[in-house]
């Protein structure tokens, strides 16, 4: 692995995935973990879904409503959370843009390449 492939910037680069309308991720995969910088535009939603990967999230900018296991949590910049494997989660923004850093372990294999959607995640019929 070259030194250049080990250093990144939160504001640029990565593998781009369009997760939902108004929700874009830039993914940085590693061997045992994966980082994803997710930008959620105002009034956008990440559908409630679940996957077998553990996920941690940090709200870097803005605020949003995080839905986890059926409970809504109002989070703002500086707040962070853990989502255990297979727990349904998603969320929605309010009037402003939000940026979230997601950390997955193990990496989500389908996120190692550009694409659209939530990959192999199971999307719940519940509204985000």
What is the compact description of this entry?
The protein is mostly beta strands and 128 residues long. The protein has strands at residues 15-20, 23-29, 34-40, 45-50, 54-61, 63-68, 71-76, 80-83, 89-93, 98-105, 115-116, 122-123.
Structure, explained:
With 128 residues, this protein is mostly beta strands. The chain has no helices and twelve strands. The strands form two sheets. A seven-stranded mixed beta sheet has the order 8-5-10-3-2-1-11, with no helix packed on it. Strands 7-6-9-4-12 form a five-stranded antiparallel beta sheet, with no helix packed on it. A hairpin with a 4-residue loop joins strand 2 and strand 3. The mean pLDDT is 94.
Question: What's the structural blueprint in terms of helices and strands?
Answer:
Layout: E1 15-20, E2 23-29, E3 34-40, E4 45-50, E5 54-61, E6 63-68, E7 71-76, E8 80-83, E9 89-93, E10 98-105, E11 115-116, E12 122-123
Task: Give the key terms.
12 strands, mainly beta, 52% strand, 128 residues, five-stranded antiparallel beta sheet, seven-stranded mixed beta sheet
- SS elements, strand count: 12
**Helix content, binned percent:** under 10%
Which segments are poorly predicted (pLDDT under 50) over 5 or more consecutive residues? none
Kindly report the average pLDDT value: 94
Largest sheet: 7 strands, mixed
How many DSSP helices?
Answer: 0
Structural class designation: mainly beta
Percent in strands: over 45%
**Major sheet: order of its strands?**
8-5-10-3-2-1-11
Rg is 14 Å
The rounded distance between the terminal residues' Cα atoms is 39 Å
